[in-house]
Amino acid sequence: MKTNKKISTARHIEIIGHDGKVLYKGSLNAFPIPERIIIEKSIKYFDDPRPCHIHRSAVLNRIYSELEAALSPNGYDVIWQVEQLPENILRYLGKYKNAKIVKYYVIR
Q1: Residue 16: Cβ within 10 Å count
Q2: Strand order of the sheet with strand 22-27?
Q3: Which residue has the higher pLDDT, 5 or 97?
Q4: What is the DSSP letter of 18?
Q5: Per residue in 68-81, pLDDT tens?
Q6: If 0-12 CB within 10 Å is exposed, 13-18 middle and 19+ buried, where does residue 67 land?
Q7: Which residues contact 58 (CB under 8 A, 6 or more apart)?
Q8: 27-65 pLDDT, tens per residue?
Q9: Rounded to whole angstroms, how far apart are CA atoms 18 and 11?
Q10: Cα–Cα distance measured from residue 75 to residue 69, given in angstroms and rounded to the nearest whole number
């Protein structure tokens, strides 16, 4: 009997500091985006300075899609030196000012 099972993939990001310590390691969809950027994008997309759950979720989904497209345009696992990243992506690193390396990978 044949079943149609969806193969799940989990997109992950890892941020490593200049001292070699892991600053963040986890799901891309759980990566903490600075609140000021969420508000900024919510105003841009929805004219909403106090985003409800639906607008906040939509903004975060767009940001995570933008991150994925920038970090891995071909869908491959990638390791970036932070100075190689475009300015619009660097903004999303927020509290990780000490970042040196950003890894993007998919767990299949």
Answers
A1: 20
A2: 22-27, 10-17, 99-107, 78-81
A3: 97
A4: T
A5: 999 998 888 999 99
A6: buried
A7: 45, 46
A8: 999 999 999 999 999 999 999 999 999 999 999 999 999
A9: 24
A10: 8
Q: Please name the amino acid found at residue 45.
A: Y
Measured between its terminal Cα atoms, the distance across the chain in Å is: 24
One-letter amino acid for residue 12 of the chain: H
For residue 31, the tally of other CB atoms under 10 A from its CB is: 20
Please give the single-letter amino acid code of residue 96: Y
Which amino acid type is present at position 14? Answer: E
* pTM for this model (two decimals): 0.85
Q: Do the beta carbons of residue 27 and residue 12 sit within 8 Å? A: yes
DSSP state letters, 23-67: EEEEEGGG----HHHHHHHHHHHHS-SS--HHHHHHHHHHHHHHH
Q: What is the per-residue pLDDT for 9? A: 73
